[in-house]
Amino acid sequence: xxxxxxxxxxxxxxxxxxxxxxxxxxxxxxxxxxxxxxxxxxxxxxxxxxxxxxxxxxxxxxxxxxxxxxxxxxxxxxxxxxxxxxxxxxxxxxxxxxxxxxxxxxxxxxx
Amino acid sequence: xxxxxxxxxxxxxxxxxxxxxxxxxxxxxxxxxxxxxxxxxxxxxxxxxxxxxxxxxxxxxxxxxxxxxxxxxxxxxxxxxxxxxxxxxxxxxxxxxxxxxxxxxxxxxxxxxxxxxxxxxxxxxxxxxxxxxxxxxxxxxxxxxxxxxxxxxxxxxxxxxxx
Lengths: 111, 163
Prior knowledge:
Shape of chain B: globular
Strand content of chain A: 5-15%
Largest sheet of chain A: 2 strands, antiparallel
Distance between the termini of chain A: 68 Å
Structural class of chain B: alpha+beta
Oligomer: heterodimer
Helix content of chain B: 10-25%
Structural class of chain A: mainly alpha
Strand order of the largest sheet of chain B: 1-2-8-7-6-5-4-3
Helix content of chain A: 55-70%
Number of strands of chain B: 8
């Protein structure tokens, strides 16, 4: 089954894991301590994140650490940014329109 | 105003949030009246909005169409009004009409839920777009729809922080 970044961030626990390891690389045990779910559940999320290539594993001594692939995260940023920009352009027009409507209301009240 | 925020609440949804410096009843009008809608949705640089028809009663239809100044190509959206709670909530379906841009974007309508919440004369507007499938949502991104609009891409601040 093909995985992608959108699937990676579709789940709230996975989003929380991303936020955690964005700060520093962590072992699965350290990550699991932050959640009420079972260690197995956390492992499953880590596996999906790895398959989505959003996290990578690194051996440090005997421990496995999970690292966030920042470059991969930027793909999501880019997607959202395009989307956001379209809306923001419209909304800036709406700001102007609303200012005008407010002004009109004020004037009508004065009459 | 703080710029719009976009997030992905689930596999099939996109959520856009923005605050406006006006009471909900005025913002509401801008969403319900065609001549006002045209003023803020019909002014993307390089595009005109030749069609903006709206019958915003439950069961009513709307039709929006944009035309490129550069080459006359058109695309648009149509849909049906599902729910109307004045000054608070508007739900409608939306189908992308690719016109002659030559892109397809799924046949199934997406569902748009717009909520308006007023506090201290400001109104928070949240727009939730639920695509019929994950594929539709990803396709909405993948098509060149945004390219024609000459958007500048800038890094979205705080996406990581928000997640």
